[in-house]
Amino acid sequence: MEAVHTLDGVPIARIPLDGRGHRATGWWGMMFFIITEGTLFAYLLFSYFYVGAQSPTWPPGGPPELTLAIVNTVILVVSSIPMRLGTLAIRRASRGALVAWAIVAALLGVAFLIIEATEWSRKPFRMSTGSYGSLYFTVTGFHFAHVVVGLLLILEIVWRALADRVSAARPLAVETVGAYWHLVGLVWLFVFFTIYVSPYLW
Amino acid sequence: MATTVAAPRAAGPKHKYESGIWSWLATTDHKRIGQLYLYTALAWFLVGGIEAFIIRLQLYGPNGRIVSAETYNQLFTMHGTTMIFMAIMPLSAAFFNFLVPLQIGARDVAFPRLNAFSYWVFLAGSIFMNVSWLFHAAPDGGWFAYAPLNTRVYSPGLNMDFWVIGLQILGLSSLAAGFNFITTIINMRAPGMHFMRMPVFTWATFVTQFLIVLSFPFITVAVTFLLFDRFFGTNFYEIAAGADPLLWQHLFWLFGHPEVYILILPAFGLVSEVLPTFSRKPLFGYPVMVYSLILIAFLGFGVWAHHMFAVGMGPIADSIFGITTMLIAIPTGVKIFNWLGTMWGGSLRFTTPMLFAIGLVSLFTIGGISGVMHSSPPSDLQQTDSYFVVAHFHYVLFGGSMMGLFAGIYYYFPKITGRLMSETLGKWHFWLTFIGMNLTFFPMHFAGLDGMPRRIWQYDANQGWDVDNHISTIGAAILVVATLIFVINLVRSRRSGARAGNDPWGAPTIEWSIPSPPPAYNYATIPTVRSRYPMWDMKAPELTASVPHSPAGEKEVTVKVGGATAGHIETPADTQLNAENAHPSAHELGIVMPTPTIKPLLATLGLCVSFFGLIWHRHVPIIILGGVIFVAALYAWLLTPLEPEH
Q1: Is the model more confident about B566 or about B227?
Q2: B583 falls in which pLDDT band (50, 70, 90)?
Q3: Alpha carbon of B482 to those of B46, B427, B432, B443, B508: distances in Å?
Q4: Is B247 within 8 Å of A47 when comparing Cβ atoms?
Q5: Which of B5, B187, B233 sits opposite A19 (nearest CB)?
Q6: Is the pLDDT assigned to residue B540 strictly greater than 80?
Q7: Do residues B338 and B412 make contact, with C-beta atoms less than 8 angstroms apart?
Q8: Whole domain around residue B306: which residue ranges?
Q9: Which residues of B fall within a CB distance of 8 Å from A55?
Q10: Pick the CATH number of A6-200 from 3.40.718.10, 1.20.120.80, 3.40.50.1240, 2.160.10.10
């Protein structure tokens, strides 16, 4: 009875739990979670266009004000850069840089949330005003919730980095959270186009 | 075998989660979760069946007086909702859980704790929906709950609140399971288990999970809008505020039609396992069976508006959806003929699972043909909302899905429990089900064509419906007896059925190579797969001569850890078989299994607290408390490693 190990000392008997493909199991899981969430937003935006196409005037109060939304778009898209730098840092085994970059990304995310809340408070309509108000607040609210989840995940990454639970050999947690954060930015681009840009092209 | 197994390590002290009630509450073992799904779903199947039987008693004769109109509405709504979301889907999930890791040669699913979470969320959602009976406020808007009838204005009570929240919870469960199983099948297959060697049930699971991942977001969006309308005063479906009533119908059927395939494809998969075994022939046209599964799933997204021919979408939309609906009959017909081709010339053994499988092939064909009749809009206009439609979808869902699932239960019961079910009682069950099912649903075709609308509470005498309804109710009574026989068979066989051994049926796939019930780790050594039918390669090679094989087995397997190549191991050329009745523990074999944990259950409890806060006068502190419990449980879960540290 001789134990068989892989080159980095993992007993062969435990390998199947981690999957046998080229990519880690967690990576695939996050990809399909992202597909699910992306699909959810696609269907929300489908509803927006469907209701818009059935309405005589859309949006009812004219196209929305763009300034804050453009600022917010820039902030969220830019926040993907520190997230990516954090991923590259952990691949170089630089745990301190990961923590720093993750915090920068999280702060940009918080700024996005504050500006979004400010914009909500300035709207002349509310969730209950009409179909447009319902759609506007539901779509942006769903996205808001996804940013909040992203921030909670980044916090978890920081905790793991400080607790020595990620490393150059085990970067998976950072990579999957990074992928989620990029999704949140990408989805916002679609939301931005649908709600802020498309009324000008209508 | 010894060369690939690590030296035995000292067995650690027994964890409290390894026995008794805790071993079920904290389990992360896909086989235990599969059994939890199985027995929970069967319990809901009985509840849904009782609801159906009360409906049939009410309709036995003209002007029935068994239940009030309000109760009747609740009964047919909950019958549909229960059978679809709490019986057939979770019965399929029981097989996804129990079988997929066994069929692909894996130790567990990709995310064992998420899998436990899916089950607990399903259990919570199904109990939540049924608690409504205690408040005399069961959902009453029909299983597709059309807007604006489902809004606060027209359904002011708690009834639709329970429905909308319950459905949201159940959807969460299916979505989480969806990407879990896709990942499992993509990433956890044993060496040599190429996609085109996977058992057809695993293929059906794979395709079904894609349907779930792509179609459940539709119902999530539809139900979220309704939830917001009912609780937060939004205007998605309020016609007075300028909403469009068809938004709900489009969103619902964009989910609802793929859902039909979510209900039937797993049953198709099970039957594709049963028929080759009892015909002693490889499945006829395996690649075409796989392609037709994919094609059905793909076309399933393009036919939703055939549920809406009666709303007046215009001739262009009607024509397009009529044609796509006719198209989808082609891959479905291909499957029927391939099953016939599998049986043709085989040495047939008419065991109970085989009888149920043949039941699916014949009865689903009837339901499929009446489905094609609906694809023509003028014809559909005559049939829609009549008992003809009720007959159609019961042939598809009872004659199709349930027959397939019963076939699966009889076929896999020995693998699940180690004991065979009684063949005598099984055959009584089959014949009474077959006769009762046809007596119940076949006359509904005529009642429908004679103009009987679905969902009516009472009808007047002498409209030509009396005899049809008499026969239907007698058929339903036979189904009640059949189901009782099934329950007795299940309980008795579980306790004292004949011992099954590893492979009671002479089956071709690798799950039959290990002991019944399988040990926690499934395979002591992960098998290397050389063809679609490894067991027949060993036991009856003459049966698999026509099936493609690897030339000499795969001698060397590249081992990857974290995406990087970590080394090579030698594996024996032949499939490793575990000795009968050898049950070394995972400890003794040095196999590291996921730690049992209660955290997925805690997270589910947090969700329950939130949803009860929502339905109980929108009590904000309780909603927030539930949210905090949920997030705290998730953090505790995320920050604990899946396996013991080593």
Answers
A1: B227
A2: low
A3: 12, 10, 5, 19, 30
A4: yes
A5: B187
A6: yes
A7: no
A8: 20-496
A9: 242
A10: 1.20.120.80
